Amino acid sequence: IFSIFFHFFFVFFLMVRRPPRSTLFPYTTLFRSQEGLVSDPFTNLNVTLSKLSGNDVAGYGVIFGSHDDTMLVVLINTKKEFIIGELTGNLFTVLQSWDDAPGLKSGYNQTNIIDITYDSGTGEFDLSFNGEWITTFRDDDAPFHTQGKYGYIVVISPMDDFPNIPVSITFKKN
Fold it and tell me: Is there a contact between 146 and 117 (Cβ–Cβ < 8 Å)?
């Protein structure tokens, strides 16, 4: 369907086709893309994202620590909100509910940078948006997500006029 190439800089332009249904959120559809090896230790992920079209509250973001059909997820939307969770199969467990993030830029065609850093000494993840620290969170329940693949995730909302109006997101790994 499309190829993903990782070089020094990675640019990913996504015109989403309807993927299988998911229970991440009621009545949503997901698209996920992953790269890396399950054995890769997670230390940091820094990604630039922008939403060009689609429903303004539907989330898009990054996945990391992915292995055995489980991963951690950070989603943002165009309303300056974010959520952190664990996705196992089609079950989404909230680690931090949707919350305002003053460091995010609102609206379409706005570039936001998500930066996630893992400190193996404390077992904590630090989350920043556009260089502004937002929160620290932990993954205390097995399976742990301190290694694994990373990638991108897009939520298609029932409020999207999809496929008449495509959901378009750009991602660039820094």
Answer: no
Q: From residue 68, how far is each of 65, 86, 128, 144, 148 by CA, in Å? A: 10, 13, 27, 11, 9
The pLDDT profile of the chain, 174 residues, written as one tens digit per residue, is 333 333 333 333 344 433 333 434 444 555 566 777 677 788 999 999 999 888 888 889 999 998 888 999 999 999 999 999 998 888 889 999 999 999 999 999 999 999 999 999 999 999 999 999 999 999 988 888 998 888 888 887 777 777 777 777 888 887
Instruction: Report the C-alpha gap between 73 and 86 in whole angstroms.
Output: 6
Which residues lie across from 133 on neighbouring strands? 128
Residues 6 or more apart whose CB falls under 8 angstroms from that of 56 comprise 77, 78, 79, 108
Give the C-alpha separation, 19 to 2, whole Å. Answer: 13
* One-letter amino acid for residue 165 of the chain: I
Q: How far is CA 38 from the centre of its chain?
A: 18
135 vs 129: CA distance, rounded Å: 10
Q: Is the peptide bond before 19 cis (omega within 30 degrees of 0)?
A: no
